[in-house]
Amino acid sequence: MTLPKKNELGFYEIRLESIGGLGANLAGKMLAEAGVLGSNLNGSNFSSYGSEKKGSPVKSFIRFCEADTEIRDHSPIEQPDVIGVFHEELYTMVDVVSGLRPDGVVLVNSTRAVESVKEELSIDHGTLAIVDALGIAIEEKTKLNTAMLGALFRICDFLDPDIMRDVIRRTFEKKYPHLVEPNIRTFNRGYEEVAFQTYELSKEAEGKGFTRKQTKYGYNTQTIGGIILANGNSLQKDLTGSRLGFLPDWDAETCIHCAQCDTVCPDFCFVWKSGEDKRGRKQMFLEGIDYQYCKGCLKCIAACPTGSLTKMAEEAGFAKENRVPHKIQYIGGEK
User: Fold this and answer.
1) CATH code, 234-334
2) Where are the alpha helices (DSSP H) in 9-60?
3) Are 293 and 243 in contact (CB under 8 A)?
4) How far apart are CA 153 and CA 298, in angstroms?
5) H/E element holding 186?
6) CB 69 within 8 A of CB 5
7) Cα separation of 197 and 115, whole Å?
8) Judging by beta carbons within 10 Å of its beta carbon (0-12, 13-18, 19+), is residue 321 exposed, middle or buried?
């Protein structure tokens, strides 16, 4: 097998950008396995994530090289040929397209138009690929990582998709045989439904080259006296990038303001205001949801006795546009 392109070390490199819980780690393993077992390539895969894996940023790295080349490099991939972005809101926290090669490909799980995603990511070169992996997974009742794998195989056309279908079978058939066919359908749909748009490399981008980002504070730049400039308070907390693609949608018309949702919410996302009921008695009424603090656990939906809270697939920008901010109490007044 001959790779379509290689870097100076002879590698074809893929980096998956995701959050814990979306299956990027497993997807990287399956992708590497398919290349090694099915295409006679040497390959390696490893992931990077923190202790709070679910909801926190995750990176999965895959390297391929031809059979006569050994992989002796196990460092994180900084200049990938392909980047897969599993979670659209992730790039509010992470520079997901960092180091993309001039002829590289960025695959994004999104329902938005290509130009809108391009503007959001500030891509000025390479190929942008869009697939509604979450939508496919919801319809097929599977996980979005299988749909992303299908799209990645369309991009990496030197890999045999039939080998990936065999890997899916081996992965699921022993413990979850009922998931084999749905996951193969999900893979096939990701392969067929991905859309591409290529952009020519601008002269400005051509001259930039790759620059490794340095940490903000080091032994030369640390503040004197150990001053904490960014104190960890909840006002700055934003869980947008940690949700797994779903949000609670609130229907004010059917809500009885029983506060069952507030009782089970681990992050105090529900915003209340005081008022009077029809008999003139004082009562607290639900005003809305502060989505900035919502991590999408959906416990509130299970607790709601009237069905006023329902599960919805998160669309880019929905949480920001429909957020009802908490009113913060300050000394001397309300803000």
Assistant:
1) 3.30.70.20
2) 24-39
3) no
4) 33
5) helix 180-193
6) no
7) 9
8) exposed
Read off the pLDDT of residues 151-199 as tens digits, 9 standing for 90 and up. Answer: 999 999 999 999 999 989 988 888 899 999 999 999 999 999 999 988 8
Retrieve residue 154's tokens: 């369309």
Four-residue CA torsion sign, 187, 192, 193, 196: positive
The domain spans of the chain are 12-208, 234-334
| Both tokens assigned to 232 | 């960890």
For residues 250 and 324, the answer to whether their CB atoms sit within 8 Å is: no
Residue 229, pLDDT above cutoff 70: no
Query: Quick check: helix, strand or coil at residue 169?
Result: helix
- Model pTM? 0.81
What tokens were used for 161? 């998709």
CA 3 from centroid of its chain's CA atoms:
28
Enclosing H/E stretch for 329: strand 329-330
Q: What's the CATH code, domain 12-208?
A: 3.40.920.10
Q: What is the C-alpha separation between 192 and 12, in angstroms, rounded?
A: 23
